[in-house]
């Protein structure tokens, strides 16, 4: 707070620093953000992007009444901080339509240039009563259509497959700590394929690489693999974690680069068919592409 985040972290001014309010943490740990301390931190540390002090995430296991209370509390926070530079939050939930109606009834919220979308991670984690990915996609498409002129940020998206959905929906930014969490559990990401377990750490389990995938990892160009090889990914303790975390982040950034490259080249529809090996999300990507083609053929 004395130096400001850019100086403290040594981050150049042209790189944006986004702040998270910790709402997802409070789902499992209880408690609430100390609002006064949060606003003081924002004022002095000067992040470039920051959401309202706290949003209250409706989880799939909640009753509709409990979810409504979360949405009401989040809306109250949106309205309370709408006159400042705080980013309002919209949650993906079965009650989205009513929430959007309330959101659009407030001029100060409609004038915001950016909206953050939350509530997706509890559903993607396949919690009890979680929404089907198809339903989540439909709601994301609806929000994108409702707010065509705004930048959208999604909390919690950061997998090699979900990045494709974010890019096709023209989501402007995403954030996730999943690449670090995977690394801590002995998991690495493979381009176009998803997660693979390369180190046996405690009770964590997952799909292991096949022979061809081990070859992919042996040829990986990320800094960790170039220096330490596959053995570095398999290692335990801090050494292994750092290698897997470096690998996972590099893979995500490379995936974004490839997606943008093929979208610009105009050959994404052909490229992703060979690149993506994921039966769950491929139909969703096809649906987005079909919708895009429909909008192009029948512009409003």
Sheet-strand content, in percent, reads 5-15%
Biggest beta sheet attributes: 4 strands, parallel
SSE pattern, N- to C-terminal = HHHHEHHEHHEHEHEEHHHHH
User: How many strand units?
Assistant: 6
Helix content: 40-55%
Mean pLDDT: 92
Give the number of domains: 2
Briefly note the structural class of the backbone.
Answer: alpha/beta
As laid out across the biggest beta sheet, the strand order is: 1-2-3-4
Low-confidence segments, given as residue ranges, are none
Specify the number of helices: 15
Strand and helix map with partners:
Layout: H1 5-9, H2 23-29, H3 35-45, H4 64-80, E1 89-91, H5 96-104, H6 107-110, E2 114-118, H7 121-124, H8 133-146, E3 151-155, H9 162-168, E4 173-175, H10 178-184, E5 187-190, E6 194-197, H11 211-218, H12 223-234, H13 237-265, H14 268-275, H15 282-297
Parallel strand pairs: 1-2, 2-3, 3-4
Antiparallel strand pairs: 5-6
Describe the overall structure.
It is a single chain. By secondary structure, the chain is of the alpha/beta class. The chain folds into 2 domains: 5-156, no CATH class; 157-300, Queuine tRNA-ribosyltransferase-like (TIM Barrel), CATH 3.20.20.105. 53% of the residues lie in helices and 8% in strands. The chain has 15 helices and 6 strands. Strands 1-2-3-4 form a 4-stranded parallel sheet. The chain has a two-stranded antiparallel sheet with strand order 5-6. α10 packs antiparallel against α13 (237-265) and α12 (223-234) packs across α13. The protein is globular and about 55 Å long. The model has no long low-confidence stretch (mean pLDDT 92).
């Amino acid at each position: 707070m004395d130096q400001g985040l850019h100086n403290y972290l040594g981050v150049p001014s042209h790189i944006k620093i986004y702040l998270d309010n910790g709402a997802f943490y409070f789902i499992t740990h209880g408690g609430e953000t100390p609002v006064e301390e949060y606003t003081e931190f924002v004022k002095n540390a000067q992040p470039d992007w920051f959401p309202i002090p706290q949003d209250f995430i409706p989880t799939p296991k909640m009753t509709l009444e409990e979810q409504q209370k979360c949405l009401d509390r989040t809306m109250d926070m949106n309205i309370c901080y709408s006159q400042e530079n705080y980013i309002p939050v919209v949650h993906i939930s079965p009650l989205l339509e009513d929430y959007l109606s309330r959101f659009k009834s407030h001029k100060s919220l409609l004038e915001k240039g950016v909206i953050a979308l939350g509530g997706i991670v509890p559903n993607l984690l396949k919690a009890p009563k979680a929404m089907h990915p198809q339903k989540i996609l439909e709601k994301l498409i609806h929000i994108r259509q409702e707010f065509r002129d705004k930048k959208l940020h999604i909390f919690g998206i950061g997998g090699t497959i979900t990045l494709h959905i974010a890019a096709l929906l023209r989501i402007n930014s995403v954030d996730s700590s999943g690449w670090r969490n995977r690394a801590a559990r002995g998991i690495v990401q493979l381009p176009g394929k998803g997660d693979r377990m390369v180190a046996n750490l405690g009770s964590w389990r997952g799909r292991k690489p096949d022979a061809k995938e081990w070859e992919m990892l042996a040829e990986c160009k990320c800094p960790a693999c170039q220096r330490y090889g596959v053995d570095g990914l398999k290692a335990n303790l801090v050494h292994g974690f750092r290698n897997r975390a470096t690998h996972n982040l590099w893979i995500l950034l490379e995936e974004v680069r490839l997606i943008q490259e093929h979208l610009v080249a105009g050959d994404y529809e052909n490229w992703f068919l060979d690149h993506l090996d994921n039966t769950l999300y491929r139909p969703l990507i096809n649906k987005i592409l079909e919708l895009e083609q429909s909008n192009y053929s029948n512009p409003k």
